[in-house]
Amino acid sequence: MVFRNRALVRYIWFCIELDAYDCSECEPQSRDPETWGFSDEDNVRIVNGFEALFSTLGTWEPRPSGEMLQLDISIHSPSDSEHWFKYLTFEPDLPPEECALPSAEQQSVLIRSEHDDLRHGWRAGRQVSLPPWKVFQKVFAEIMIGGPFKDEEQEMEWWRQLPLVPAVTSVLLRQQTRRRWNPQALAQLFSRFPRLQEIHYEPWREWDATQDILTDRLFPELFRSLASSQQPLERLVIFENFSPDYAAAVNEESWVPPDWAPPHWIPLIRPARFEFCSPSRIASPDVSHAVCSASLRLEQLSASFIVEASHFFDCANKHTSWAWANLTSVALTTQLLVPGASLTRIEEMLREAAATALRMLKLENMEIWNGQKEFAMLFRYQHRRPHPLPGTRRSAVITWKGTWTRAQLSRLRPPVTDAWEAVARQQNSNGVTTVEEVLSESDAAEIKSHGDAIRYLDLSSSVIRPISLRQIQMEQMIRDGGHD
User: Which residue range or ranges hold the DUF6546 domain (predicted)?
Assistant: First the structure.
Protein backbone atom coordinates (compact mmCIF):
# COMPACT_ATOMS: atom_id res chain seq x y z
CA MET A 1 0.00 0.00 0.00
CA VAL A 2 1.22 3.50 -0.85
CA PHE A 3 2.53 5.18 2.30
CA ARG A 4 0.25 8.22 2.01
CA ASN A 5 -2.86 6.00 1.89
CA ARG A 6 -2.19 4.21 5.18
CA ALA A 7 -3.75 7.00 7.20
CA LEU A 8 -7.06 6.45 5.38
CA VAL A 9 -7.38 2.84 6.54
CA ARG A 10 -9.66 2.30 9.55
CA TYR A 11 -10.43 -1.41 9.30
CA ILE A 12 -8.48 -4.51 8.20
CA TRP A 13 -10.12 -7.92 7.87
CA PHE A 14 -7.38 -10.54 8.15
CA CYS A 15 -9.14 -13.73 7.07
CA ILE A 16 -7.16 -16.97 6.87
CA GLU A 17 -8.84 -19.55 4.64
CA LEU A 18 -7.88 -23.11 5.51
CA ASP A 19 -7.77 -26.07 3.13
CA ALA A 20 -11.05 -27.38 1.78
CA TYR A 21 -12.03 -30.89 2.87
CA ASP A 22 -14.46 -33.54 1.66
CA CYS A 23 -16.86 -35.91 3.40
CA SER A 24 -14.06 -38.28 4.33
CA GLU A 25 -12.66 -35.55 6.62
CA CYS A 26 -15.75 -33.71 7.86
CA GLU A 27 -16.26 -36.43 10.49
CA PRO A 28 -12.77 -37.56 11.57
CA GLN A 29 -12.48 -41.30 12.14
CA SER A 30 -9.00 -41.38 13.66
CA ARG A 31 -8.62 -41.79 17.43
CA ASP A 32 -5.67 -39.36 17.42
CA PRO A 33 -7.02 -35.89 18.38
CA GLU A 34 -4.11 -34.18 16.62
CA THR A 35 -5.45 -35.39 13.27
CA TRP A 36 -8.93 -33.95 13.86
CA GLY A 37 -8.25 -30.28 13.30
CA PHE A 38 -5.54 -28.63 11.23
CA SER A 39 -3.39 -30.11 8.49
CA ASP A 40 0.33 -29.34 8.38
CA GLU A 41 -0.40 -27.08 5.42
CA ASP A 42 -3.01 -25.17 7.46
CA ASN A 43 -0.60 -24.64 10.34
CA VAL A 44 2.12 -23.33 8.03
CA ARG A 45 -0.43 -21.06 6.33
CA ILE A 46 -1.41 -19.55 9.68
CA VAL A 47 2.21 -18.96 10.73
CA ASN A 48 3.17 -17.45 7.38
CA GLY A 49 0.06 -15.30 7.35
CA PHE A 50 0.69 -13.79 10.76
CA GLU A 51 4.37 -13.23 10.03
CA ALA A 52 3.52 -11.38 6.81
CA LEU A 53 0.78 -9.37 8.53
CA PHE A 54 2.95 -8.25 11.44
CA SER A 55 5.94 -7.52 9.20
CA THR A 56 3.75 -5.22 7.13
CA LEU A 57 1.75 -3.51 9.87
CA GLY A 58 4.85 -3.18 12.05
CA THR A 59 6.09 -0.49 9.65
CA TRP A 60 2.93 1.61 9.96
CA GLU A 61 3.09 4.75 12.05
CA PRO A 62 0.90 5.03 15.17
CA ARG A 63 -2.37 6.86 14.65
CA PRO A 64 -2.96 10.32 16.08
CA SER A 65 -4.90 10.39 19.31
CA GLY A 66 -8.55 9.59 18.74
CA GLU A 67 -8.05 7.72 15.45
CA MET A 68 -8.61 3.97 15.41
CA LEU A 69 -7.21 1.13 13.32
CA GLN A 70 -9.24 -2.03 13.82
CA LEU A 71 -7.80 -5.47 13.05
CA ASP A 72 -10.43 -8.19 12.56
CA ILE A 73 -9.02 -11.76 12.62
CA SER A 74 -10.98 -14.74 11.23
CA ILE A 75 -10.00 -18.35 10.50
CA HIS A 76 -12.22 -20.81 8.63
CA SER A 77 -12.38 -23.38 5.85
CA PRO A 78 -14.78 -22.85 2.93
CA SER A 79 -15.88 -26.45 3.53
CA ASP A 80 -17.20 -25.67 7.03
CA SER A 81 -20.54 -24.61 5.55
CA GLU A 82 -20.76 -27.44 3.01
CA HIS A 83 -21.34 -30.40 5.33
CA TRP A 84 -23.13 -30.40 8.70
CA PHE A 85 -23.05 -26.64 9.37
CA LYS A 86 -24.75 -25.32 6.24
CA TYR A 87 -25.91 -22.14 7.97
CA LEU A 88 -22.40 -20.75 8.59
CA THR A 89 -21.46 -17.45 7.00
CA PHE A 90 -18.08 -15.72 6.89
CA GLU A 91 -18.31 -11.97 6.48
CA PRO A 92 -16.40 -8.82 7.37
CA ASP A 93 -17.55 -6.78 10.34
CA LEU A 94 -20.45 -4.60 9.23
CA PRO A 95 -21.99 -1.46 10.75
CA PRO A 96 -25.38 -1.92 12.47
CA GLU A 97 -27.39 -0.34 9.66
CA GLU A 98 -26.04 -2.84 7.13
CA CYS A 99 -26.69 -5.83 9.41
CA ALA A 100 -30.44 -5.24 9.12
CA LEU A 101 -30.32 -6.10 5.41
CA PRO A 102 -29.83 -9.61 3.95
CA SER A 103 -26.33 -9.91 2.53
CA ALA A 104 -25.31 -11.89 -0.53
CA GLU A 105 -23.63 -14.35 1.83
CA GLN A 106 -26.82 -14.75 3.83
CA GLN A 107 -28.92 -15.25 0.71
CA SER A 108 -26.53 -17.90 -0.60
CA VAL A 109 -26.62 -19.86 2.66
CA LEU A 110 -30.43 -19.82 2.64
CA ILE A 111 -30.41 -21.31 -0.84
CA ARG A 112 -27.74 -23.86 0.10
CA SER A 113 -29.64 -25.04 3.16
CA GLU A 114 -32.82 -25.73 1.18
CA HIS A 115 -31.34 -28.78 -0.54
CA ASP A 116 -31.66 -32.29 0.86
CA ASP A 117 -28.43 -33.72 2.27
CA LEU A 118 -29.44 -36.62 4.47
CA ARG A 119 -25.84 -37.72 4.90
CA HIS A 120 -25.30 -34.53 6.89
CA GLY A 121 -28.69 -34.41 8.59
CA TRP A 122 -30.56 -31.97 6.32
CA ARG A 123 -33.97 -32.40 4.72
CA ALA A 124 -35.83 -29.63 2.86
CA GLY A 125 -33.90 -26.85 4.54
CA ARG A 126 -34.25 -28.19 8.09
CA GLN A 127 -31.61 -29.87 10.22
CA VAL A 128 -33.34 -33.15 11.11
CA SER A 129 -30.42 -34.81 12.91
CA LEU A 130 -27.66 -33.33 15.04
CA PRO A 131 -23.99 -33.54 14.05
CA PRO A 132 -21.97 -36.42 15.52
CA TRP A 133 -19.53 -35.57 18.29
CA LYS A 134 -16.44 -35.98 16.09
CA VAL A 135 -17.71 -33.29 13.71
CA PHE A 136 -17.20 -30.74 16.49
CA GLN A 137 -13.57 -31.82 16.82
CA LYS A 138 -13.02 -30.66 13.24
CA VAL A 139 -14.78 -27.29 13.20
CA PHE A 140 -13.97 -26.36 16.83
CA ALA A 141 -10.35 -27.54 16.83
CA GLU A 142 -7.77 -25.55 18.78
CA ILE A 143 -5.69 -23.32 16.53
CA MET A 144 -2.17 -24.70 15.93
CA ILE A 145 -2.54 -27.42 18.58
CA GLY A 146 -0.89 -29.98 16.29
CA GLY A 147 1.95 -27.86 14.99
CA PRO A 148 4.04 -26.52 13.44
CA PHE A 149 5.76 -26.05 16.82
CA LYS A 150 7.15 -28.95 18.81
CA ASP A 151 5.65 -27.69 22.07
CA GLU A 152 3.71 -24.83 23.64
CA GLU A 153 6.80 -22.94 24.79
CA GLN A 154 8.14 -22.82 21.25
CA GLU A 155 4.80 -21.41 20.07
CA MET A 156 4.82 -18.73 22.78
CA GLU A 157 8.37 -17.79 21.81
CA TRP A 158 7.25 -17.46 18.19
CA TRP A 159 4.50 -15.03 19.19
CA ARG A 160 6.96 -13.01 21.27
CA GLN A 161 9.36 -12.54 18.34
CA LEU A 162 6.71 -11.04 16.05
CA PRO A 163 7.18 -7.30 15.43
CA LEU A 164 5.29 -4.83 17.59
CA VAL A 165 2.41 -3.12 15.78
CA PRO A 166 1.71 0.26 17.43
CA ALA A 167 -0.70 1.30 14.64
CA VAL A 168 -3.42 -1.19 15.66
CA THR A 169 -5.68 0.11 18.43
CA SER A 170 -8.60 -2.35 18.24
CA VAL A 171 -8.79 -6.14 17.77
CA LEU A 172 -11.85 -8.20 16.83
CA LEU A 173 -12.07 -11.98 17.25
CA ARG A 174 -15.65 -12.70 16.21
CA GLN A 175 -17.80 -15.77 16.82
CA GLN A 176 -17.81 -16.77 13.15
CA THR A 177 -14.41 -18.31 13.88
CA ARG A 178 -15.46 -21.59 15.48
CA ARG A 179 -11.88 -22.75 15.92
CA ARG A 180 -10.54 -22.03 19.37
CA TRP A 181 -7.69 -19.78 20.43
CA ASN A 182 -5.50 -20.92 23.31
CA PRO A 183 -5.84 -18.13 25.93
CA GLN A 184 -2.05 -18.17 26.39
CA ALA A 185 -1.57 -17.53 22.67
CA LEU A 186 -4.06 -14.66 22.84
CA ALA A 187 -2.13 -13.06 25.69
CA GLN A 188 0.96 -13.07 23.47
CA LEU A 189 -1.00 -11.85 20.44
CA PHE A 190 -2.46 -8.87 22.32
CA SER A 191 0.97 -7.99 23.73
CA ARG A 192 2.18 -7.22 20.19
CA PHE A 193 -0.15 -4.19 20.08
CA PRO A 194 1.40 -1.68 22.51
CA ARG A 195 -1.31 0.96 21.89
CA LEU A 196 -4.30 -1.39 22.08
CA GLN A 197 -7.43 0.40 23.31
CA GLU A 198 -10.24 -2.09 22.77
CA ILE A 199 -10.83 -5.83 22.36
CA HIS A 200 -13.95 -7.57 21.11
CA TYR A 201 -13.52 -11.27 21.85
CA GLU A 202 -16.28 -13.75 21.00
CA PRO A 203 -15.06 -17.29 21.78
CA TRP A 204 -17.23 -20.38 21.70
CA ARG A 205 -17.70 -22.38 24.87
CA GLU A 206 -15.94 -25.72 25.20
CA TRP A 207 -17.87 -28.88 24.32
CA ASP A 208 -15.73 -31.18 26.46
CA ALA A 209 -16.10 -31.01 30.25
CA THR A 210 -12.41 -31.74 30.80
CA GLN A 211 -11.30 -29.16 28.25
CA ASP A 212 -13.70 -26.68 29.82
CA ILE A 213 -11.85 -27.01 33.13
CA LEU A 214 -8.46 -26.65 31.46
CA THR A 215 -9.48 -23.57 29.47
CA ASP A 216 -10.98 -21.92 32.55
CA ARG A 217 -7.61 -22.36 34.25
CA LEU A 218 -5.95 -20.44 31.39
CA PHE A 219 -8.44 -17.58 31.04
CA PRO A 220 -7.35 -15.80 34.27
CA GLU A 221 -3.80 -15.57 32.91
CA LEU A 222 -5.14 -13.90 29.77
CA PHE A 223 -7.17 -11.33 31.70
CA ARG A 224 -4.34 -10.65 34.14
CA SER A 225 -2.07 -9.91 31.19
CA LEU A 226 -4.58 -7.33 29.94
CA ALA A 227 -4.75 -5.73 33.38
CA SER A 228 -0.96 -5.40 33.58
CA SER A 229 -0.38 -4.00 30.09
CA GLN A 230 1.61 -0.77 29.93
CA GLN A 231 -1.05 0.95 27.83
CA PRO A 232 -4.36 0.77 29.74
CA LEU A 233 -7.10 -0.97 27.78
CA GLU A 234 -10.21 1.21 27.53
CA ARG A 235 -12.88 -1.18 26.31
CA LEU A 236 -13.25 -4.95 26.75
CA VAL A 237 -16.20 -6.84 25.25
CA ILE A 238 -16.29 -10.62 25.77
CA PHE A 239 -19.15 -12.73 24.48
CA GLU A 240 -18.87 -16.48 24.94
CA ASN A 241 -21.18 -18.00 22.35
CA PHE A 242 -22.97 -21.32 22.74
CA SER A 243 -25.72 -23.49 21.29
CA PRO A 244 -27.93 -25.80 23.36
CA ASP A 245 -28.33 -27.89 20.20
CA TYR A 246 -24.58 -28.45 20.07
CA ALA A 247 -24.46 -29.48 23.74
CA ALA A 248 -27.26 -31.98 23.12
CA ALA A 249 -25.44 -33.38 20.09
CA VAL A 250 -22.19 -33.84 22.01
CA ASN A 251 -23.95 -35.59 24.90
CA GLU A 252 -25.88 -37.84 22.54
CA GLU A 253 -22.78 -39.07 20.75
CA SER A 254 -20.00 -38.99 23.33
CA TRP A 255 -21.11 -41.80 25.64
CA VAL A 256 -19.21 -44.93 24.61
CA PRO A 257 -20.58 -48.30 25.77
CA PRO A 258 -18.10 -50.78 27.27
CA ASP A 259 -16.58 -53.34 24.92
CA TRP A 260 -18.14 -56.25 26.80
CA ALA A 261 -21.73 -55.01 26.34
CA PRO A 262 -23.80 -56.82 23.66
CA PRO A 263 -25.89 -54.50 21.45
CA HIS A 264 -29.20 -55.37 23.14
CA TRP A 265 -27.76 -54.30 26.52
CA ILE A 266 -26.75 -50.80 25.43
CA PRO A 267 -30.19 -49.14 25.91
CA LEU A 268 -30.35 -50.71 29.37
CA ILE A 269 -26.97 -49.57 30.65
CA ARG A 270 -26.80 -46.11 29.07
CA PRO A 271 -27.00 -43.46 31.84
CA ALA A 272 -30.36 -41.71 31.98
CA ARG A 273 -28.66 -38.32 32.05
CA PHE A 274 -25.16 -38.54 30.67
CA GLU A 275 -23.52 -35.10 30.41
CA PHE A 276 -20.18 -35.01 28.69
CA CYS A 277 -21.00 -31.35 28.15
CA SER A 278 -23.23 -29.36 30.54
CA PRO A 279 -26.38 -28.02 28.81
CA SER A 280 -25.56 -24.47 29.92
CA ARG A 281 -22.30 -22.75 30.74
CA ILE A 282 -21.22 -23.04 34.37
CA ALA A 283 -19.10 -19.95 34.87
CA SER A 284 -15.86 -20.35 36.80
CA PRO A 285 -15.49 -18.04 39.82
CA ASP A 286 -11.77 -17.70 39.03
CA VAL A 287 -12.55 -16.39 35.54
CA SER A 288 -15.13 -13.93 36.88
CA HIS A 289 -12.65 -12.72 39.50
CA ALA A 290 -9.93 -12.23 36.87
CA VAL A 291 -12.30 -10.19 34.69
CA CYS A 292 -13.22 -8.11 37.74
CA SER A 293 -9.55 -7.35 38.38
CA ALA A 294 -8.95 -6.56 34.70
CA SER A 295 -11.82 -4.06 34.71
CA LEU A 296 -10.20 -1.63 37.16
CA ARG A 297 -8.63 0.55 34.44
CA LEU A 298 -11.36 0.13 31.83
CA GLU A 299 -13.90 2.67 30.63
CA GLN A 300 -16.35 0.06 29.29
CA LEU A 301 -16.78 -3.62 30.16
CA SER A 302 -19.16 -6.21 28.81
CA ALA A 303 -18.76 -9.90 29.70
CA SER A 304 -21.50 -12.29 28.61
CA PHE A 305 -21.84 -15.94 29.68
CA ILE A 306 -18.11 -16.35 30.35
CA VAL A 307 -18.65 -14.70 33.75
CA GLU A 308 -21.29 -14.88 36.46
CA ALA A 309 -22.25 -11.42 37.73
CA SER A 310 -22.62 -12.62 41.33
CA HIS A 311 -19.02 -13.91 41.26
CA PHE A 312 -17.83 -10.58 39.81
CA PHE A 313 -19.48 -8.52 42.56
CA ASP A 314 -18.38 -10.98 45.24
CA CYS A 315 -14.78 -10.42 44.15
CA ALA A 316 -15.24 -6.65 44.05
CA ASN A 317 -16.58 -6.55 47.59
CA LYS A 318 -13.77 -8.72 48.94
CA HIS A 319 -11.34 -6.04 47.72
CA THR A 320 -12.77 -2.98 49.40
CA SER A 321 -9.80 -0.82 48.39
CA TRP A 322 -10.51 -1.29 44.68
CA ALA A 323 -11.98 1.67 42.79
CA TRP A 324 -12.99 2.04 39.16
CA ALA A 325 -11.90 5.57 38.32
CA ASN A 326 -12.85 5.48 34.64
CA LEU A 327 -15.57 2.86 34.22
CA THR A 328 -18.75 4.35 32.74
CA SER A 329 -20.53 1.22 31.50
CA VAL A 330 -20.64 -2.41 32.65
CA ALA A 331 -22.81 -5.27 31.38
CA LEU A 332 -22.71 -8.77 32.90
CA THR A 333 -24.78 -11.94 32.64
CA THR A 334 -26.08 -13.99 35.54
CA GLN A 335 -27.76 -17.37 35.82
CA LEU A 336 -29.76 -16.02 38.77
CA LEU A 337 -32.18 -14.16 36.49
CA VAL A 338 -34.32 -17.08 35.40
CA PRO A 339 -38.03 -17.81 35.96
CA GLY A 340 -38.58 -19.18 39.45
CA ALA A 341 -35.16 -18.10 40.70
CA SER A 342 -34.36 -17.56 44.37
CA LEU A 343 -35.38 -14.04 45.35
CA THR A 344 -32.93 -14.13 48.25
CA ARG A 345 -29.97 -14.80 45.94
CA ILE A 346 -31.11 -12.09 43.51
CA GLU A 347 -31.35 -9.61 46.39
CA GLU A 348 -27.89 -10.53 47.62
CA MET A 349 -26.42 -10.02 44.15
CA LEU A 350 -28.14 -6.65 43.67
CA ARG A 351 -26.92 -5.39 47.05
CA GLU A 352 -23.37 -6.38 46.15
CA ALA A 353 -23.79 -4.76 42.73
CA ALA A 354 -24.84 -1.51 44.41
CA ALA A 355 -21.91 -1.67 46.83
CA THR A 356 -19.59 -2.07 43.84
CA ALA A 357 -21.29 0.76 41.95
CA LEU A 358 -20.44 3.12 44.82
CA ARG A 359 -16.78 2.69 43.84
CA MET A 360 -17.40 3.19 40.11
CA LEU A 361 -16.96 6.93 40.22
CA LYS A 362 -18.08 7.68 36.65
CA LEU A 363 -20.72 4.96 36.27
CA GLU A 364 -23.53 5.84 33.87
CA ASN A 365 -24.92 2.43 32.96
CA MET A 366 -24.95 -1.00 34.63
CA GLU A 367 -26.83 -3.91 33.05
CA ILE A 368 -27.24 -7.37 34.58
CA TRP A 369 -29.08 -9.70 32.26
CA ASN A 370 -29.76 -13.21 31.05
CA GLY A 371 -31.48 -14.68 28.04
CA GLN A 372 -31.94 -17.98 26.25
CA LYS A 373 -34.73 -19.71 24.39
CA GLU A 374 -38.16 -18.37 25.43
CA PHE A 375 -36.96 -16.13 28.24
CA ALA A 376 -35.04 -12.93 28.83
CA MET A 377 -34.54 -10.67 31.85
CA LEU A 378 -32.70 -7.40 32.43
CA PHE A 379 -31.88 -5.23 35.42
CA ARG A 380 -30.53 -1.85 34.34
CA TYR A 381 -29.32 1.09 36.43
CA GLN A 382 -28.79 4.33 34.54
CA HIS A 383 -27.44 7.56 35.89
CA ARG A 384 -28.42 10.39 33.62
CA ARG A 385 -25.93 13.13 33.00
CA PRO A 386 -26.51 16.37 34.95
CA HIS A 387 -29.06 18.76 33.48
CA PRO A 388 -27.39 21.73 31.75
CA LEU A 389 -29.31 24.19 33.94
CA PRO A 390 -27.42 24.96 37.18
CA GLY A 391 -28.99 23.49 40.29
CA THR A 392 -31.16 21.02 38.34
CA ARG A 393 -30.88 17.34 39.19
CA ARG A 394 -32.22 14.30 37.38
CA SER A 395 -33.41 10.99 38.75
CA ALA A 396 -31.47 7.80 38.26
CA VAL A 397 -33.52 5.09 36.56
CA ILE A 398 -33.80 1.38 37.37
CA THR A 399 -35.40 -0.66 34.61
CA TRP A 400 -36.72 -4.20 34.91
CA LYS A 401 -37.43 -5.74 31.52
CA GLY A 402 -38.25 -9.36 30.80
CA THR A 403 -40.55 -12.11 29.65
CA TRP A 404 -42.16 -12.69 33.01
CA THR A 405 -43.82 -10.28 35.41
CA ARG A 406 -41.93 -8.57 38.17
CA ALA A 407 -44.47 -9.74 40.75
CA GLN A 408 -41.76 -11.70 42.50
CA LEU A 409 -39.08 -9.08 42.02
CA SER A 410 -41.41 -6.27 43.12
CA ARG A 411 -41.14 -7.68 46.63
CA LEU A 412 -37.48 -6.72 46.84
CA ARG A 413 -36.86 -5.70 50.41
CA PRO A 414 -35.75 -2.25 51.59
CA PRO A 415 -32.04 -3.13 51.89
CA VAL A 416 -31.92 -3.55 48.10
CA THR A 417 -33.77 -0.35 47.24
CA ASP A 418 -31.83 1.53 49.92
CA ALA A 419 -28.54 0.33 48.43
CA TRP A 420 -29.38 1.76 45.01
CA GLU A 421 -30.76 4.97 46.52
CA ALA A 422 -27.31 5.40 48.09
CA VAL A 423 -25.68 5.03 44.66
CA ALA A 424 -28.02 7.68 43.23
CA ARG A 425 -27.30 10.09 46.11
CA GLN A 426 -23.56 9.72 45.62
CA GLN A 427 -24.05 10.63 41.96
CA ASN A 428 -26.09 13.67 42.98
CA SER A 429 -29.24 12.25 41.38
CA ASN A 430 -32.70 13.24 42.51
CA GLY A 431 -33.69 9.79 43.75
CA VAL A 432 -34.40 6.63 41.76
CA THR A 433 -37.26 6.04 39.36
CA THR A 434 -38.22 2.41 38.68
CA VAL A 435 -39.57 1.36 35.28
CA GLU A 436 -41.03 -2.05 34.46
CA GLU A 437 -41.31 -3.41 30.90
CA VAL A 438 -42.93 -6.83 30.61
CA LEU A 439 -42.54 -8.56 27.26
CA SER A 440 -45.69 -10.27 26.02
CA GLU A 441 -46.21 -14.02 25.78
CA SER A 442 -45.98 -13.72 22.01
CA ASP A 443 -42.62 -11.98 22.40
CA ALA A 444 -41.40 -14.81 24.62
CA ALA A 445 -42.48 -17.37 22.04
CA GLU A 446 -40.46 -15.50 19.42
CA ILE A 447 -37.26 -15.85 21.44
CA LYS A 448 -35.60 -18.87 19.83
CA SER A 449 -32.07 -18.20 21.07
CA HIS A 450 -29.93 -15.93 23.21
CA GLY A 451 -29.53 -13.79 20.07
CA ASP A 452 -33.27 -13.09 20.01
CA ALA A 453 -33.18 -12.36 23.75
CA ILE A 454 -30.55 -9.66 23.20
CA ARG A 455 -32.68 -8.06 20.51
CA TYR A 456 -35.82 -8.06 22.68
CA LEU A 457 -34.02 -6.68 25.73
CA ASP A 458 -32.61 -3.83 23.63
CA LEU A 459 -29.49 -3.56 25.79
CA SER A 460 -27.84 -0.16 26.09
CA SER A 461 -24.41 -1.76 26.16
CA SER A 462 -22.73 -3.24 23.11
CA VAL A 463 -22.43 -6.87 24.23
CA ILE A 464 -21.74 -8.39 20.78
CA ARG A 465 -20.84 -7.21 17.27
CA PRO A 466 -24.02 -6.51 15.24
CA ILE A 467 -22.97 -8.91 12.46
CA SER A 468 -22.39 -11.65 15.06
CA LEU A 469 -25.86 -11.12 16.50
CA ARG A 470 -27.39 -11.41 13.04
CA GLN A 471 -25.45 -14.61 12.38
CA ILE A 472 -26.65 -16.20 15.65
CA GLN A 473 -30.27 -15.38 14.88
CA MET A 474 -30.04 -16.54 11.27
CA GLU A 475 -28.31 -19.81 12.19
CA GLN A 476 -31.03 -20.71 14.69
CA MET A 477 -33.73 -19.80 12.20
CA ILE A 478 -32.22 -22.08 9.55
CA ARG A 479 -31.72 -24.98 11.99
CA ASP A 480 -35.38 -24.67 12.94
CA GLY A 481 -36.49 -24.51 9.31
CA GLY A 482 -37.99 -21.08 9.90
CA HIS A 483 -36.90 -19.69 6.52
CA ASP A 484 -39.46 -21.70 4.58
Answer: 232-465
Query: Count of CB atoms within 10 A of residue 117's CB?
Result: 15
Residue 189 domain flag = yes
Global confidence as pTM: 0.90
DSSP for 162-215, written as a single string? SPP-TT--EEEE-TT--SBPPHHHHHHHHHT-TT--EEEE-PBPPSSHHHHHHH
Indicate left, alpha or beta for 383 from its phi (over 0: left) and psi (-120 to 50: alpha).
Answer: beta
SS3 of the chain: helix, strand, coil, percent, to 5:
40, 15, 45
403 inside domain:
no
For residue 397, the SS3 value is: strand
Q: Which residues contact 305 (CB under 8 A, 6 or more apart)?
A: 205, 239, 240, 241, 242, 281, 283, 333, 450
- The amino acid occupying position 320 is T
89 is in which domain, residue-wise? 3-332+464-479
**Residues whose CB falls within 8 Å of the CB of residue 34, separated by 6 or more in sequence, listed in order:** 145, 146
Asked if the bond preceding 148 is cis, omega within 30° of 0, the reply is: yes
Eight-state DSSP code of residue 361: T
| Nearest alpha carbon to residue 341 among 375, 392, 292, 373 | 375
Total domains in the chain come to: 1
Q: CB of 354 within 8 A of CB of 419?
A: yes
The set of residues, in sequence order, having a beta carbon less than 8 Å from that of 1 and lying 6+ positions away, is: 9
Helix ranges (DSSP H) in 4-127: 23-26, 40-57, 96-99, 104-113
Q: Which residues pair with 200 in a beta bridge?
A: 172, 237
Position 31 in a domain: yes
Per-residue pLDDT of 328-339, as tens digits, reads: 999 999 999 988
User: How do beta strands 126-127 and 122-123 pair?
Assistant: antiparallel
Q: pLDDT, tens digit, for every residue of 132-161?
A: 878 888 889 899 887 788 888 999 999 999
